[in-house]
Amino acid sequence: xxxxxxxxxxxxxxVYHSLRVLPQAWPILRVDGRNFSKFTEKRFQxxxxxxxxxxxxxxxxRLLEELHALYVYTESDEISILLDRExxxxxxxxxxxxxxxxxxxxxxxxxxxQAEVHFDSRLCVAANSGLVLDYFQxxxxxxxxxxxxGWCYWTLRQxxxxxxxxxxxxxxxxxxxxxELLFQRGINFNDLPGWQKRGSGIYWQEYEKIGCNPLxxxxxCAIRRRIHKDEDLPMGSxxxxxxxxFLGGA
Length: 250
Ligand SMILES: Nc1nc2c(ncn2[C@@H]2O[C@H](COP(=O)(O)OP(=O)(O)OP(=O)(O)O)[C@@H](O)[C@H]2O)c(=O)[nH]1
Ligand SMILES: [Mg+2]
What we know:
The protein has 250 residues and is α+β, with helices and mostly antiparallel strands. The chain has helices at 3-11, 36-41, 50-66, 94-113, 129-158, 163-170, 175-183, 194-198, 236-244; strands at 26-33, 71-75, 78-82, 119-126, 200-212, 219-230. The chain has a 6-stranded antiparallel sheet with strand order 4-1-3-2-5-6, sandwiched between helices. The longest helix is centred in the middle third of the chain and has 30 residues, at 129-158.
């Protein structure tokens, strides 16, 4: 078989390669640490370890830069990445977006921990800006739920309960019951750090840089960008308003 014919036949096996994010839809990627329950078990404080979180924020920063993202959000072992609806990154190819985001997160965390770790990745396609707001509010609600559950679970475990006993005690309990459990042990859920309850946002922020024109000696003002790591995100409708700032009025 001629090489060109073979090439064409073999390329035709790449059946998903032509899949692209629909024009004008917002791509949102979510990478998630593979088997991190096991990986973090002996290495990090429970339920939250600032060192683990800082490594996740650092990986989020790499993703913001590498993928030219608008907004990156991290909680627990996952990172969500919002791209511009007009993005032309990797020609909007699903396979490229998913594989490069997983590879970037895996490399960043492996370097940070000096251990081989892996991330999976998935692509959500939000057809309108309302769905983008819903998506990020959903992940933030997940952060709040996991934070309360994690604190309750590990508080009980530290009191000597087994996995099964702690899980059974918490099964079917509502928000206020769990709050009360912590409160009786001197932990006020409201006073826990914002990054634990609501996750963290990583995004570009513009600022004015005042300088001096060496020729004229006059003061100059330039608009620059820097990466902001927001560890105290707003919640509820305030979070939705905050997110709208990334959507350019769409
Ligand atoms: N000790 C510790 N563990 C953490 C911290 N943040 C996240 N984790 C762990 O990361 C896990 C994330 O949950 P999942 O993604 O559902 O679990 P997983 O084991 O990674 O499973 P897969 O993602 O399906 O591979 C949590 O259950 C915790 O065990 C932290 O600050 N400290
Ligand atoms: Mg995971």
